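Rotation project, supervised by the postdoc (A.L.). Task for the rotation student: set up a whole-complex structure prediction and record inputs and outputs verbatim in this book. Inputs entered:
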Amino acid sequence: MSRILTHNVLRSAENHPDRIAFKQLDQAITYTQLRDQSYQLANTLIQAGIKKGDRVGIFMNRSFESAVSVYGILFAGAAYVPIDTNLPPSRVLDVVNDCNIKIIISKQQFKKKIAGICTEQSSLVTVVGLDDDPSDQVKSLGWKTVRDADTQAPDRKIAEEDIAYIIYTSGTTGKPKGIVHTHSSGYSYAKLSAELYDLTYTDILGNHSHLHYDISTMGYLTMPYVGGCTIIIPEAHTKFPVSLGQMIEQEGMTVWYSVPLALIQLLTSQALVDKDMTALRWVLFGGEIFAIKYFKQLFELLPNAVFSNVYGPAEVNQCTYFHFDQDTQLGDAIPLGQAWPETLLDLIDTSSSDDEVVGELVVASSTRMQGYWNKKSLTKEKSVTLLNPNGITDTYYKTGDIVKRTSIGELIFIGRKDRQIKIRGYRVELNAIETILLSHQAIKEAAVYAIKEGDINQIYANIVLDSDSIDEVLLNKYLAQSLPTYAIPQNYRIVQSIPRTGAGKVNYKLLSK
Amino acid sequence: MTIGEEIIRILKQDILQDDDFEVDLETDLLTSGALDSMALIRLVAAIETQYEIKIPPTDLVIENFINIQSIEQYLSNTLASK
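Outputs recorded:
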């Protein structure tokens, strides 16, 4: 069977026509409706000029319309590009222009933010989902136009190697980079995750993640593969764990997948106490390290669920897993586990002692990205060609994660090769923050580093001033023009000098002590 | 100043630092995307400081914080029983 994502919706509409595909509060859509409404959006997009291989933006919060947006774009033969609505306008423009987005799908409530990116420098031509035109140059097509469109299948042939979606993440230079996935790599993820977690059409998944974050692929791609139901958790519930706990129980969710933080919030706000959670059979988490003390408490609170650590950078979707059952002996850290199917792992630049090997993890798999959008040299830099165990050369993605392989072949995360950290699952490039600080006229030198306080990374910035003083509020506003909120330092330290090593490099080891 | 007006002031001046932020008693604060999680945490903390109360985790539910009107209602009840 060819690995094309839209086939999943067609198959589920055929096999489970009246099953709920996506649900949010009192809004629900069956697989038949998902297919037909996606056709309508696809026809609208084609009419508006979208060609095969074009990129179409999705600019909305965790909402019901996102499901039809994803498949409408795919049926039109285009690739979807989810964009974080909380990004500063200049950064949204970076994404829009980087992959030359002409059409964005949004909702009326984002009217003001959309208007903010309709500048002369923007490649944007049309917005779907606004009641009025956001500017003189950019025209709007309301959702009503989409609902009135033709429900016939659009005449677009899609191939496995066609691009399906691009997820943007922070780059070391301060400009975001786009991770390009094809229908084949996305479908492979859907298939492998469905098989690994034994998902079926009876499953109900709690999708906590934003569409622009790769954890959402299980809800948007895997569930249509099996014909199951995805609950798109509303923004409000992600902010109020007690309400979220009620929702997990009421919806009878059988599978949960999120960053550890969302689970820790459910735990510490007592949201799972005295609730009937017997339906919940899988608790999946990934994106960052789960502090073992919280993990143990949660594990005891949900005895019916199997827990699984999901590991894999967005560039490869997922590559390893580690399942816990009641007999698992828990050490100091949760292992990354072992490779899942259709995947080869290797370590490069290794050092070994006793039975253990430490090195950078590299991955070759069917779920691997095609590359970074429009960044050939970066794609090459992050790739390595190795001889695989079958004696054939293969291209591996260099994760930048340093891991330990134990004598029994289990992988354990040690740290990063570069200066990337994770905050609430989001990647933060400390070097990028430095670059932006240094672009401020009052700043002569800057060193940005992270210190763990409790279990959370706090960002510190030591700065040497070129002027007498600096206003911290104004500085924060300056950074907010080009960085997402989670990447803005919590602490500034005005210093006379920044410690350096003999070679003149910033001595980060000393700073983060 | 009513409780509602006070919350709007805190929201505009201290939390969002945006005087042009359009909000009335019934604006949906949670699903509109106006407040991200960090802003919401700061709003709760600012309310606690302003009214010298500690909001228990069990009261941190959507019904109490969906809009200014709900926050006002919740605070009136809480302050009355203090």
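Student's summary: Chain A touches chain B at residues 61, 85-86, 109-110, 234-243, 268-270, 477, 485-486 (CB under 8 Å).
Supervisor addendum: The radius of gyration of chain A is 23 Å.
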